[in-house]
Specification:
Blueprint (H helix, E strand, L loop, with lengths): L2 H9 L3 H17 L3 H4 L7 E3 L2 E3 L3 E3 L10 H4 L6 E7 L12 E4 L4 E4 L8 H10 L6 E5 L10 H12 L5 E5 L14 H22 L5 E5 L5 H13 L4 E4 L20 E4 L3 H15 L4 E5 L5 H9 L4 E4 L1 H6 L2 H15 L1
Parallel strand pairs: 3-4, 3-13, 4-7, 7-8, 8-9, 9-10, 10-12, 12-13
Antiparallel strand pairs: 1-2, 5-6, 6-11
Helix pairs in contact: 6-7, 7-8, 8-9, 10-12
Length: about 350
Amino acid sequence: MPYALLRPLLFSMNPEQAHEKTLQMLESANKAHLLGFVYAKQALPTECMGISLLNPVGLAAGLDKNGAYIDALSELGFGFLEIGTVTPKPQMGNDKPRLFRIKEANGIINRMGFNNHGVDVMIDNIEQAKYQGVLGINIGKNATTPVENALDDYIYCLERVYPYASYITINISSPNTKNLRNLQSGDALSQLLDGIKNCQLRLANDYGFYVPLALKIAPDLDLSQIDDISRTVIDFEIDGLIATNTTLSRTGVEGFRHGEEAGGLSGRPVNHQSTLILSQFADRIADKVDLIGVGGIETGELAVKKLHAGAKAVQLYSGLIYKGPGLVTDCVQALSGDRYG
């Protein structure tokens, strides 16, 4: 059934219920071998972080937090998938309601709070999946872990997911875990990346292969923070930077229902700021660190703008909710036309 016909039904549910229902329907359609006929995978070979991607359009973290729907999501035409954010121990996340649509602006506010079943459950799900493509795993810290002990949680997850990941994303930019964004600056970031990088190199030696690291950052950064992060990721030879996570700004949703809910804002309203931050990082580090652009992509043309701003690849999430899975094909086609047109 075309997404345009399904959307009114899904939007009649509360957003979190619709999220779960959508994934269940995708799983059922995949088991019936229907998805591959509808959403053909389009090749646009791309290199990012030393990884060969089928195409540069990926799934952003957050849609499949536990890696429970990898096979179904892989049939929607993505060139790569990112699952998570996962934490060492299971956690419920924040109290409901915690997910809100702002339909007038094609925006979403969430304060989910890293709700997930824990890293061991994720690994079980990955082991059961048949997917052989590029899989990114996004890791975070438990809410009960003091921020000064965050490194322990990241290393715990890193050690466990390393043999299953094509790349690993360090999420220090969610606004929904108390004090997490404090890790984005100064000595806190240096100490975190020093510990994580040492762990990565040890694991690379142990396993005999190198899994790249990416850092996911917020859009709510000033130029001095951008300068600091740029220097730090270069110093610690981080492989990728994902720009950006959700924003605390409410620009573009003022006066709309749910526009003042607490949490991170994604979708169309964050597109301009996320692309601006992306371009500012590109000016500083694009020759040394590969960039992935995410935030407010709801058309193929906006995906092209991310690459023009300095990204090697892009990721989708909120745009899928408003536009449906056909957005993946639209983005790949637009990027293909831009590259070869």
